[in-house]
């Protein structure tokens, strides 16, 4: 363990023992410090301004420096002191959340201090952590810190990705210039709820009493000047006991176990801990409107639709929260158990996951035909599925209530019945879908709470189950797109944009039990435009390519070469020669491949909201042809269904338009509308 920072507690002293996992002070005279700490005048001050998107409670924990274990022990952030400004309910019910940070650190002329371990009578290896903790306070960090949690709510008519892009652009501009504000257009399209924590500087009070985005950003950028004459102790600097003279001799070679693995494990516990709280809140709403719900379908252990059964669900949630708290206590006493749990089949930290309880809860009644409408700006994606001998087209889109829905077309007729695939997706989530004819499974990918989720369903099965993509570190950019492709050999490829706007590639091999991130794409070379549209162009045999907009505002096509064994040589940059103009951010790009003629087709939405189409045949891209228009936040998908016709789907306000492309006349005609109540052609 190297030097680190811990949360400040009242009356804490330099030389005091400290537990970095639960952020609590321990034995007061753990280490004798010479010379003793005393206030000094800083030589210089260093100021920082930055920000983080936060999508989960563990994101918030890391961003504000309050440990997940402390938040769990306190029943939430409200009891942690520094984290008391976090309102978990507002975060969980917001469309976007981010934290703005302005920090000033005092710098001093160095003083060489000596640290001598102070052995207390009766201390053994077994009780050391409980009395001394895993480290000691070696210094104080001084200066000032301003933190603002901004929760953003937007209406269904506003494209979430575009709002996130505008927020990101505004914050980056302020970060560079040192001052500024969001545009009036952005402020008019989003509702901001702001809470603030500050230490150091002068007392903060926005004009008019309540914080708004303008007063918060001004306070953040003015904060360093306020701290220049009003600094404070911010936090404690922590060092391992191994740096103190006499420690090894007194403890006979003992060294406290590290909490590093425990910290990662506990981050996931905090997310589950707060998810249970959200479920309890949702159950309260169910109790007020039982008539609006039905018993969970296809669940033998589903909760009944009555108050007693729902109370049992609340009790189970509270029981799991208690188990998580006990897990934290166990790891606090022995952090080695966290390491053992990673390989121990008899996991000591098992508990029922929130999703397992939520799946058994009553579901909202199926949306009636008269209210069936897609979310404005919904992403849409198509894939062809074999159900027995019948070739079907599946259209996936987002309902205005947030659910991911499936529409089915058989024999050129769209079914009037829609199937719910998932709930809990973020508004305007990107979507990707693929069918595997070998396993007869359909896989749908979407985003929830800033994470990529995968659901899988086999043909003739009614229930969607969690897929193998469960990597909790696979956090992607909030303005990303998703693209998935299955090679004829059976290998699945998933592409997305990470928070640094790099192209990320993950693979699911046939027979594998988890996704893996292979080497091959030089991520440092291929930075994407924030929110770049992204699609996979199928090819002959196992050849394929991925197309996106590079940070230099040009199209990039990376071709996968299945014939080489050298991973570093499998991806090659192609001279794309794409005739399409750059399309707008979001799900504005879609492609398909016609096996019979080996033709690639690509559609894109221009910034003018016009849809244009191009084809790749005879080794070149054709001139773009105009297809139609979409609404301001519309998305597009292209597919060749069972008839062989080229079908283009474009989302509009509260619906999806289906069009058929006539290649001989280079025109597109509206065939019918999907997603809404299906209208006759």
Plain-language structure description:
This protein has 681 residues and is of the alpha+beta class. It folds into 3 domains: 4-251, no CATH class; 260-363, no CATH class; 366-674, 6 Propeller (Neuraminidase). Helix content is 20%, strand content 33%. The protein is built from 12 helices and 37 strands. Strands 1, 2, 3, 5, 6, 8, 9 and 10 form an 8-stranded antiparallel β-sheet that branches. Strands 13, 14, 15, 16 and 17 form a 5-stranded antiparallel β-sheet that branches. The longest helix is centred in the middle third of the chain and has 29 residues, at 260-288. The chain is globular.
Query: Which CATH architecture of the largest domain is right?
Result: 6 Propeller
Q: CATH-wise, what's the superfamily of the largest domain?
A: Fucose-specific lectin
* Continuous helix count: 12
Helix content: 10-25%
According to DSSP, the number of beta strands is: 37
By CATH reckoning, the class of the largest domain would read: Mainly Beta
* Percentage beta strand: 25-35%
Largest sheet: 8 strands, antiparallel
Average pLDDT? 84
């Amino acid at each position: 363990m190297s030097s680190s920072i811990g949360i400040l507690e009242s009356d804490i002293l330099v030389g005091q023992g400290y537990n970095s996992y639960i952020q609590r002070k321990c034995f007061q005279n753990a280490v004798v410090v010479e010379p003793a700490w005393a206030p000094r005048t800083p030589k210089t001050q260093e100021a920082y301004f930055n920000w983080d998107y936060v999508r989960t409670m563990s994101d918030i924990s890391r961003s504000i420096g309050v440990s997940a274990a402390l938040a769990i022990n306190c029943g939430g952030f409200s009891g942690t002191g520094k984290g008391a400004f976090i309102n978990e309910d507002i975060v969980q019910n917001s469309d976007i959340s981010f934290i703005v940070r302005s920090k000033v650190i005092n710098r001093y002329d160095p003083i060489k201090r000596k640290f001598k371990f102070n052995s207390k009578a009766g201390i053994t290896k077994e009780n050391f952590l409980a009395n001394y903790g895993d480290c000691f306070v070696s210094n104080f960090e001084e200066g000032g810190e301003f933190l603002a949690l901004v929760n953003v709510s937007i209406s269904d008519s506003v494209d979430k990705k575009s709002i996130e892009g505008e927020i990101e652009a505004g914050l980056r501009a302020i970060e560079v210039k040192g001052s500024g504000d969001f545009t009036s257009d952005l402020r008019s399209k989003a509702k901001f709820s702001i809470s603030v924590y500050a230490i150091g500087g002068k007392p903060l009070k926005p004009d008019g009493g309540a914080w708004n985005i303008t007063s918060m950003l001004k306070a953040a950028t003015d904060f360093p000047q306020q701290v220049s004459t009003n600094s404070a102790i911010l936090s404690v600097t922590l060092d391992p006991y191994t740096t103190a003279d006499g420690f090894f001799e007194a403890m006979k070679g003992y060294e406290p176990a590290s909490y590093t693995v425990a910290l990662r494990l506990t981050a996931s516990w905090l997310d589950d801990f707060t998810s249970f709280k959200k479920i309890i809140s949702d159950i309260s709403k169910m109790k007020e409107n039982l008539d609006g719900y039905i018993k969970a379908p296809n669940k033998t252990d589903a909760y009944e639709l009555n108050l007693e059964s729902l109370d049992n669900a609340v009790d189970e949630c509270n029981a799991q929260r208690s188990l998580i708290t006990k897990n934290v206590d166990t790891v606090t006493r022995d952090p080695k158990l966290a390491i053992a749990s990673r390989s121990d089949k008899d996991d000591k930290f098992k508990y029922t996951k929130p999703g397992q309880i939520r799946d058994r809860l009553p579901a909202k009644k199926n949306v009636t035909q008269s209210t069936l409408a897609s979310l404005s700006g919904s992403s849409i994606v198509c894939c062809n599925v074999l159900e027995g001998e019948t070739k079907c087209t599946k259209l996936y889109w987002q309902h205005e209530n947030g659910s991911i829905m499936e529409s089915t077309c058989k024999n050129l007729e769209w079914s009037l019945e829609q199937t719910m695939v998932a709930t809990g997706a973020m508004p305007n989530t990107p979507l990707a879908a693929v069918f595997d004819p070998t396993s007869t499974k359909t896989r749908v990918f979407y985003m929830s709470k800033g994470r990529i989720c995968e659901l899988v369903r086999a043909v003739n099965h009614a229930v969607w189950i969690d897929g193998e993509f469960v990597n909790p570190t696979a956090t992607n950019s909030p303005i990303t797109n998703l693209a998935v492709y299955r090679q004829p050999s059976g290998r699945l490829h998933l592409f997305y944009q990470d928070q640094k706007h790099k192209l990320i590639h993950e693979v699911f091999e046939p027979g594998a039990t988890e996704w893996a991130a292979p080497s091959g794409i030089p991520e440092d070379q291929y930075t994407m435009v924030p929110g770049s549209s992204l699609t996979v162009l199928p090819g002959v045999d196992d050849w394929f390519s991925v197309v996106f907009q590079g940070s230099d505002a040009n199209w990039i096509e990376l071709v996968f070469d299945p014939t080489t064994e050298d991973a570093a040589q499998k991806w090659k940059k192609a001279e794309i020669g794409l005739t399409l103009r750059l399309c707008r951010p979001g799900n504005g790009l879609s492609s398909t491949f016609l096996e019979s003629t080996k033709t690639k087709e690509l559609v894109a939405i221009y910034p003018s909201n016009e849809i244009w189409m191009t084809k790749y045949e005879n080794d070149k891209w054709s001139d773009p042809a105009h297809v139609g228009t979409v609404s301001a936040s519309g998305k597009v998908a292209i597919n060749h269904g069972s008839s062989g016709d080229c079908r283009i789907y474009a989302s509009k306000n509260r619906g999806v338009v289906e069009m058929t492309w006539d290649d001989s006349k280079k025109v597109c005609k509206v065939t019918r509308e999907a997603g809404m109540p299906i209208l006759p052609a």
